[in-house]
Amino acid sequence: MTYLAFHLVFILPPILLLAWLQRQPLAGMGGVRAWLGLPLIALVATIYTTPWDNYLVWRDVWNYGAGRVMGTIGYVPVEEYLFFILQPLLTGLWFYWVFPLTTEPAQQEVSPWLRASGFVFWIVLSIAGAFMLQSDKTVYMGLILAWAGPILALQWAVGAKQLWARKDAWLIGTLIPTVYLWIADRIAIGQGIWSISEIYSTGFKPFGLPIEEATFFLVTNLLVVQGLLLFLLVGNMRSLLPLISFPALNNGQPELPKALAQVEPGNDTV
Fold this sequence. Notes:
By secondary structure, the protein is mainly α. Helix content is 64%, strand content 4%. The longest helix is centred in the first third of the chain and has 28 residues, at 31-58.
């Protein structure tokens, strides 16, 4: 099986099915944000992943089988760039389908320590990833954590309230496509479409899938789903306050700069 055939068999059909099944209004909300969310997250994913993935192939952390790809741009197969777009679309469409089915909770304040805990958790994993780069066997895992962790930490710093309130949505939105992509990835590796270096990975392979690959699809789907959820729900400049004054360090009450104090909730929603 070629890399293009992999897309035609495992990635494009569920995308088309989910696109056909989408409810209206889109994501249960409609509006410009819902329509912009998917192409925007795919664009961001492509920009952020391209240099990282080129480094992985250059470093021989992973590679593709002979005769399995149409060509490369830089070090990365053309089909891999296509995957940068297709995976966010697949996961995003699933999340859009699930989101209206989950319960919208009553408005409530989130503990500042919850925000801090989510932020610190991902920062600690990012730092751990950086340390893992010092050992060949943990290079791949380290690159994954050091690359994804800071963005996941930022998402919790900005949107802990929304993420915690809609945790059922992002948990279901993340887990189902992740398990599906684990299965597809395991088949692709078995078919020799791509391979993971034994030198730069731990060798731990539950059900034949390298733990690094399982981690990769989990964190990338988290990035997509949490990013979409925050894009849909974070509707005003006040939501950015945690970046300016961390609530946990100010008795739970972030200080509001004068320039933002005049921005009323909902003024920039679409």
